Amino acid sequence: MSLLDEMNEKATRRGVPLTVHLDITWRCNERCVHCYLDHDGKGEMTTEEIKDVIHQLAGCGTFFLSISGGEPLLRRDCFEILEYARALRFNVKLKTNAVMIGAKEAARIRKLGIEQVQISLYSHRPEVHDAITKLPGSLRRTTDAIRHLKANGVKVSITDVLMKYNHRDVKAVKQLAQELGVNFLIDPTITPMLNGDRSILSLGITPAELEELMHTEEFVGDVNEFCAPVATVGNEILDGYSCSAGHTLAYISPFGDVYPCVQFPMPCGSVRKQSFREIWHDSQAFAELRSVHVRDLPTCSHCTHTAYCSRCPGLAYMEGDFRGPSAADCQKSYARTGIPSAAMSQNGNRNPFAASGLVQISGLQ
Amino acid sequence: MYLTQSADIAARTLGDETLIMSTLDSTIFVLNSVGSAIWNAADGTTPLSRIIQEHVCSEFDVTDDQAAADAREFVDRLVKHGILFVSDAPTSPKEA
Description:
The structure holds two protein chains of two kinds.
Chain A: H1 3-14, E1 19-23, H2 47-60, E2 64-68, H3 78-87, E3 91-95, H4 103-112, E4 116-120, H5 126-133, H6 138-151, E5 156-161, H7 170-180, E6 183-187, H8 207-214, H9 217-220, H10 223-227, H11 235-238, E7 249-252, E8 257-259, E9 269-270, H12 276-282, H13 284-290, H14 313-318, H15 327-337, H16 342-346, H17 352-356
Parallel strand pairs in A: 1-2, 1-7, 2-3, 3-4, 4-5, 5-6
Antiparallel strand pairs in A: 7-8, 8-9
Chain B: E1 2-5, E2 9-14, E3 17-22, E4 28-31, H1 33-41, E5 43-47, H2 48-57, H3 64-80, E6 84-87
Antiparallel strand pairs in B: 1-5, 1-6, 2-3, 3-4
Helix pairs in contact in B: 1-2, 2-3
């Protein structure tokens, strides 16, 4: 077990919110077709409110702080907020589309000791990337920014969210990441909008495309090992939790609302009404979430895929019940192993998406 | 000898342990209770000898000589990784 895993385990036992994702705005200068946020900036926390929250988080033991949005750099006080967080010795990650980062901003980010800048990049082709962001010139501006950041020694990670528009470019994007000298991640999951609108799920890749991805050595390493089903499920897994949301992870919106995760819109409280500590320790919603172990999940606890499934309780929540299966994760397990999940078998349907409408199957472009 | 924490770190004390990560190379350190006591007292203005007396000898069951030797070894290790600086005169954190 790594030192970080050990600290995570200790944080879980002690009830420490080790990681917090703080969106400082939902406003954005891009309009990505798959974005799960609306972009209304009315009622955002002020600089002082945000600083107060960050100060509270330090007192609660938070170590990893992701500053995100929207586009966080649209706030004039973004650097002031970053500086404040670094002065309190947080490990700060900045999630941005980077189009506002030039040489000066890159140098400032380096000087502040930001741990990593995380950027979404959808294609090596401007006509594809810019069509997804709906901002002409955004690919050029983003890659220019990455070069500035790298020139200043800042660690950069790019995430390629796979959609029907761009999935064919994934190998070229990986190649671009190598040329730029940055980490590369693939995200095949489209998240429903936080307001409940699920229409953007139709942008996702098809089950067949996901299966192909899961069987491509370049992305998963040893395919046989990656795709092999794991039959045994020990008490360690059954007594554990699906993920860290609500255990060591929390999300705070630009309006001060607290949730278990950015992908888990179950309201837990507002830092405008209570302290973060009170919400974290006393909220009924957090208490309910923490009371559920893997063995308590009505369908997933006896699923073939329990041992390695990445079941997202947030996606399950958006499908109706955080204790239930998440169709997107059932599909990932199925794409990986070819074995239907318990939820799929219950439905008598090998394709979870046909039932849930989570991904619409479309022809190849 | 005075100790100053590097500005190029992230750090948080959880219970009696301290988690530190270098922002330069992402190396992670977890300090135990004695290490945490020294780390948290490393303000650039308190001499190491006083830190040992006030935060180690008075809090833990250890002789003065052993505490001094262990503390020196601990400080040397953190200095080697660039997360702690030593100086002969007091400093402010901004000088680190």
